[in-house]
Write a structure and sequence with these properties.
The protein is mainly β. The chain has no helices and 5 strands. It has a domain of 67 residues.
Length: 97
């Protein structure tokens, strides 16, 4: 007696944008201004959040604003870049790796 099987597949595709712009002078090796704008995925909450990050080396400025989709501000930082330590690539590396 033949058996019948029903297979159902579902999938979802979402598109999210993130733009990174860097400003650099011709005679200098590194960039002076970096602007990141778009959406970033926050793993703990399982959601995409709008983000704006400005790093201005010339003006010694760091600014970051992350909001939830409902408009609540999750994080807002505006400080001198030289005071923005212990984050990202400025984190102290663990020994023994």
């Amino acid at each position: 007696m033949p058996k019948n099987y029903k297979i159902e597949l579902n999938d979802k595709l979402e598109l999210h944008e993130k733009i990174i712009a860097k400003l650099k002078n011709k005679n200098e090796k590194n960039w002076n201004l970096k602007i990141l704008m778009g959406e970033d995925y926050y793993k703990k909450a399982g959601e995409w959040r709008p983000i704006l990050r400005i790093i201005d080396r010339k003006s010694n400025r760091y600014e970051e604003k992350i909001v939830r989709n409902n408009g609540d501000v999750v994080r807002y930082v505006k400080e001198k870049l030289t005071e923005h330590q212990g984050h990202g690539s400025a984190k102290k590396q663990r020994r023994g790796l």
